[in-house]
């Protein structure tokens, strides 16, 4: 039995960690968690002496992982450090230029179990599929194993790893659930197309998989009864691409679960049958879909999302007909996007909105491994060094940004900082900066068209704290709160008892 410690920066349950923890525990291993900065992580390691230190890396938190790895080695701790996740899968070269010992490319359940068994028996682990292992001056680059095992055979995610760690997680008003893995589409801005290419290059097929309706109901019943869950947040990229599955799911859910929930969909998947089934189900409180950009040609060619404006109008009309509340996600600051195209997105969002629609406005980030990121570099709107891992570990290892007022400082830092990822779009052209400032007022521009002339004047001035405050406030109150079914009581509890904690 090996003792694994997962470390992260912020107070939010990362589903990859709950999934891996559930799998490792089912194999007899011990799993713990620490949340905080590098000093806290090092203290925890010294006290608990794990056999393996693990990070599941999201790009905005990469710098935290690198800073922790450096601090761990500097403290004289020789426990192996492993990092995985989409970000690491797309940037495996980070192994060479950091204090990380092992990276996991792709799915991590079986590789982590095998690694733990090797650590437990003190045997060689340099030949485990999916793992790249740094040993001395050599890096062992092992091939990928097959994509996604039988999902019904996997244990349920381990929610206790968070619930037992801190009382904050007990006030969260929703429970995240993943039904399957993969996505059938090839949108250029999504990690799924890059992930699929890596797996297909290694010989895998069958990228999209869903668990059986029966198995999902078993997990949902457990979550409702054991944890008293009152709201389910389904995180799959889309749950409606398999029409038979979603119709069966909605019918059985109404009979057995009877708890409010929200799902992701693609608007072309919403037809009369699905709309009627959502209404008959009665528990779906929000359907989330991607508008992405208001210009049809840009959406089809640059984003590779084959959806017309007529599709958007038809699908939202069906949702309106059956009284289903919906949320549209859109991106501003895309590579190649002009200011006129950004305003076109805002206008399209207004056009297809209903009275109670939610608008998720994302400031696009050029995460590694995306086709659209390569496009942005090609047309000169991103610097390659801002997107990938730098050669100089000292730049990557510490998030030194305390303020975003120094624009020159922002340009000189690599992607990987929570603050920069939240507020910046990384475009180096002047029009990109104008679109970034427009994004600060995007919620107001959609909901209150009369304010648009004022906003057009405001974006002529330098970005500042007030603009960023408007963005944070409107995004939190008009989007995040509605998406996660967050009541006002949550904010009261957070500021009374948990205000010092960094949340996602």
Brief summary:
This protein has helices at residues 15-26, 38-48, 62-74, 86-90, 109-121, 160-163, 168-171, 191-201, 213-227, 243-256, 272-281, 296-301, 309-321, 339-351, 371-378, 384-387, 393-396, 407-411, 418-423, 430-440, 442-447, 452-458, 465-483, 488-497; strands at 3-8, 30-35, 52-56, 81-84, 102-104, 131-135, 138-141, 175-177, 180-181, 209-210, 232-234, 261-264, 284-292, 326-332, 358-363.
| The top level CATH class name of the largest domain | Alpha Beta
End-to-end distance: 32 Å
- What is the total domain count? 2
The CATH architecture name of the largest domain reads Alpha-Beta Horseshoe
| Rg result | 23 Å
CATH superfamily label of the largest domain: tm_1862 like domain
Shape: globular
- Structural category is alpha/beta
Q: Order of strands across the biggest sheet?
A: 2-1-3-4-5-6-7
Catalogue the unreliable spans: 389-413
Total strand count, please?
Answer: 15
Put simply, the count of helices is 24
Strand content: 5-15%
Mean pLDDT: 90
Largest sheet: 7 strands, mixed
What are the defining features of this structure?
504 residues; alpha/beta; Rossmann fold; pyruvate-formate lyase- activating enzyme; 2 domains; seven-stranded mixed β-sheet; six-stranded parallel β-sheet; 15 strands; globular
Write the SSE topology.
Layout: E1 3-8, H1 15-26, E2 30-35, H2 38-48, E3 52-56, H3 62-74, E4 81-84, H4 86-90, E5 102-104, H5 109-121, E6 131-135, E7 138-141, H6 160-163, H7 168-171, E8 175-177, E9 180-181, H8 191-201, E10 209-210, H9 213-227, E11 232-234, H10 243-256, E12 261-264, H11 272-281, E13 284-292, H12 296-301, H13 309-321, E14 326-332, H14 339-351, E15 358-363, H15 371-378, H16 384-387, H17 393-396, H18 407-411, H19 418-423, H20 430-440, H21 442-447, H22 452-458, H23 465-483, H24 488-497
Parallel strand pairs: 1-2, 1-3, 3-4, 4-5, 8-11, 11-12, 12-13, 13-14, 14-15
Antiparallel strand pairs: 5-6, 6-7, 9-10
Helix pairs in contact: 1-5, 2-3, 10-11
